[in-house]
Structure formats: C-alpha cells, structure tokens
Amino acid sequence: MLEMRPDCERCGVDLPADEPGAFICSFECSFCAPCAEALDDRCPNCGGELMDRPTRVGDALKRHPASAERRFRG
User: Fold this and answer.
1) What InterPro entries is this protein classified in (predicted)?
2) What is the pLDDT of residues 13-52, one digit of tens each?
3) Host domain of residue 5
4) What is the Cα–Cα distance from 35 to 26, expressed in whole angstroms?
5) Where are the beta strands (DSSP E) in 1-74?
6) What's the domain count of the chain?
7) What CATH number is given to the structural domain containing 12?
8) Is 74 inside a domain boundary?
9) 9, 11, 12, 30, 60 from 71: Cα distances, Å
10) Rounded CA gap, 41 and 62, in Å?
11) Phi, psi of 33 (to 5 degrees)
C-alpha cells in the first residue's frame, strides 16, 4: 500500500492524498507537478520515472490514512 507522503520532497508544498497533482517514483519519492516537470519526470534520488500518484478518498482514506512524516529537508 502506498504511504501517500504528505509533501513534495523538493519544495515542501502539501500533497493531500485525496487530491491529484502528486508524482511518485517506484520508491514512493513524492513531488508536486511543477517540481516533477522541472525534474523532467525523473526522480533525483533514484533516477526512476515519476508517474501520477493515484488519489485515496472516502472510506479508504479513513481506514488507511496518509503518512504524516514530511520529507522536505529545505
């Protein structure tokens, strides 16, 4: 199950689990759309492709909440 990390690792913007606009690599590194574009859709950590992260809504989000651990190190 995806962690649904709460922020962009590059700029720190919030990435709510129930909204589109987040991009992840196969290791779940998470970035906002503008940062993913600036990175040419390549993860700076592993070199993997950044893809649209699916959303998690409703009961699924209630039963399996998103991670609260922020990754931005600014």
Assistant:
1) DUF1272
2) 999 999 999 999 999 999 999 999 999 999 999 999 999 9
3) 1-69
4) 17
5) 22-24, 30-32, 51-52
6) 1
7) 3.30.40
8) no
9) 5, 10, 8, 9, 23
10) 30
11) -60, -50
